[in-house]
Amino acid sequence: MKLAHSMIHKLPKLGFKLFITTIMFVITLGLAHGQTAQEKGLAIAKERKARDLGWGDSVAEMSMILRNANGDEAERKMRMKSLEIKDDGDKGLTIFDQPLDVKGTAFLNFSHALKPDDQWMYLPKLSKVKRIRSKNKSGPFMGSEFSYEDMSSFELEKFKFKYLKDDKFEGQNCFVIEQVPTDKNSGYSKQLVWVDKKHYRALKVEFYDRKNSFLKELLNLEFELYLDKYWRPMRVEMFNEQTSKSTDLVTHSIEFKTGLNDNDFNQGSLKNLR
Amino acid sequence: MNTTWLSLSVNRPKIVLCIGFLLIFVAAFGAKNLYFRGDYKVFFEEDNPQRLAFESMQAHFSKNDGVSIIIAPHSGKVFSVQTLSLIQELTEAAEQTPYSSRIDSLSNFQHTWAEEDDMIVEDLVEDASTLLPGDLDKIQKIALQEPNLLHRLISPKGDVAVINISVNLPDGDQTPEVIKITDSVMAMTDKFKANYPEHDFYHTGVVLMNYSFFSFASNDFESIVPLMFLTIILIMWILLKTLSGTLATLLIIITSIAATMGVGGWFGMFLSTATVNVPTMVMTLAVADCIHIISSMLFGMRAGKNKKEALLYSLDLNKMPIFITSATTSIGFLTLNFAEVPILADLGNLTAVGVLFACLFSLTILPALIMLLPIKVKAQAPNSRDLGHIERFGEWVIRHHKRILPFTLIITVLAVVFSFKNNLDDVPTDYFHESTQFRQATEFQEQHVSGMTSMDFAIYTGEDSGVNQPHNLKVIEDFSIWLRQQPEIDHVSTVTDTYKRLNKNMHADDLSYYKLPNDRETAAQFMLLYEMSLPYGLDLNNHLDMKKSATRIMTMVKNMGSKELVELELRAQTWFSQNAPNLQLSAASPGLMFAHISEINMASMLKGTVVALLLISGLLIFALKSFKLGAISLLPNLLPACIGFGIWGIYSGQVNLGLSIVLSMTLGIIVDDTVHFLSKYRHARINGCDAQESVRYAFASVGRALWITTLVLATGFSILMLSPFALNSEMGMLTGIIILVALAVDFLFLPPFLMVFDKKTKQE
Question: Does A134 lie at the interface with B, CB-CB under 8 angstroms?
């Protein structure tokens, strides 16, 4: 789940489905008194998902700024293309521009909630597409503090939810939701998400490692509204509490509904990138 | 010192005690500020090169110290369904270890292989319980050929496996974390031991070693050190035959230590592995001071004086020697400020204060206490034929002094020769007796898999992505190959093996591609692909820094001494500067830091103490107002250490960090023996006696006190030999030896020397 990319990809459904979901949500809220914490957590997660449905596709230019405990910095540049997929995880295509020695390397990913993702990588020097077969989702993304898992789309099936409490974060009223990953290969025992009550955006996430120690804190900052509906953070900061390393993920530009479709996200398309 | 001032203790004991205890209480109250620091930083100045190298490495790469769990199946076969299941389950369970950041084992090793254009990345062992014999053979073949596993996580015979748990410890004193981690790991393996009884488990690693250091030190502190103090009190009671005097001495020991540590607290000092020795050092001089005063007093009472007269007599007789001993010892300890190690300066300063407290209290509090406590001694009619043992021994020495003298010279020469047999070397694992679990574990590991010591080498290219450059990769590989050829090195983990494996995988597992990529882009792209496929906790940061501009090569080294480790580092640096002069290499690891600590500490400590002894002899020229006696005092000051270490050279020859502190431990007693004997001798000489009569006087007046002090302290320190912790047992033994030798020198060697070389000054 998570944010950064979750904010960038997103789900399908529009219109009718959205209508139904909203109605259900209103009903659910109405029943709030008799709700368990699990039910309430799920309801909030559903609403969060629902509010982000229908964005279609996006193209973004981004930088990752990696920082070690010493404060040294390194920058990685990439472009990310995302396609919203109904009833499954989204498809994503990442093209690396910097460092120069990996320029042109492209990573294609079909994210799935319950089975291992499908992943391919195009290696320009070898001029070959390699399929990666691995159950691992929790490794670091380009050596950053974001794990690959953090970058993939937010899907309800990936977690068990539980509402914990109301809280304020930076002056905004929030729900605090606990999310326990359902994938046993996840690197986390749980995540605590601060979801703002007004727009159902994840403002802050705390990640707990497998031994349930506080591992990382993520902040979504500088939200912008796209297509009058979709909020995206232009800056995402991830801080590792155990190693004091951090990574900032900065979105320089993002465009929606650029007309991408399934044909832009297959092994053949990988080879034909610029 | 003024006798009227001192007589206040005798005349107004209650007032002195009230004021004294009030001040002691105020001083001792500072102990509340004391805290213990066990971290490496206390040993190094901030600009120390080893410290900088280590901290730079920690900033660029993930921390890789931790606990190793060694698993030995009774069947001798790791590659069985049962043992692999155990390893897989234990690997998973180990993730729950507090502060753990990474688990490495046979089962979660990321095995990569190719199937046409697919690259498969998976755990080497998955679902162990369902493995068939063919799978087991395959896993065994892969594991025993994998340079990252062999000799680190699996023994070459396939009979012993290792699981490494790396931990990420916070800065500062890490003792609480170390205890927490060890307890957790022990509890975990206990559980597995119950489920898999056909396996033996051992624990090693830096965390375990620190835990063992701490637990043995604190066990000794709780059992053997109190036993030592008890023995000292008991022997003193038996020899002095006065309970009141013994109890008063005990109180002086306690108050001297309490006030000293309290002052340390007020000055914001912390406890460290060096300063924990301060109480013992202060104790030795407190014991000596008290015994001098009490035994002189008892002598006076036996001669018919009442308690008060006897006490005043004793104070008058002893105040100068006690003061001179304390002042010179104190100055001697202050010279430790010139040591390169910050905590040795603390040790010196605190002991210097403690020695002065012991002096002050034994001249004030002790007489006041004795005045209030009941002491009865029968007066004995003086009988010249009824000489004591000591006096008779003195007569024997005087009679045979010309025959003894050559022996002195021979023994001195022999001692110097044998003391050069000693080797200053610190083998951390040897601090634990062979009967201890930790020592057995490290020896088992070394015998089957590898040594426990790690040594890491970081190569900095100074350019982003510089590791991917073919010429740099070549250097890294050549250096790794060189490291593998070194006989002390059991295992080398290097990123070039990963590059070679990936190159092979990327070419459909064609073995002819098991070599470094030809160009920078290929290398970078392979590594990016690999990095994207790794699981939780197994990132590349152990081998590569964030910018891929630096790499770390990790080695496992045999459990050897500080000297060899430092020498190996030097050899590596030399190879590197000859073969890759434009790259920067640094070596670091806790083991290597410890080795440097030991080397610096041992040298500083021994040099410092010898300098202190020389300085004390110099000071005695002024204190005894005689150049000749000051020069002669070099003999009883230096010879005990010489002979002591000579005996040690014959007995063992290994001098470690713990032993280098022995000389400081005995400094006070050596000086005490010298000063008391020489000052009594000097006293007689000034009053017109010749050398022979003066020696006789010295024996008669101070011999018994020196004898009791020596016996008390030597027995006390020998109790430490009961410890399974070699740091303490060997220290106890050598301290005991040197204390005995110091007395032997004063009784046997010094008198003949005086009688031969101090003949003519009678008329001065």
Answer: yes
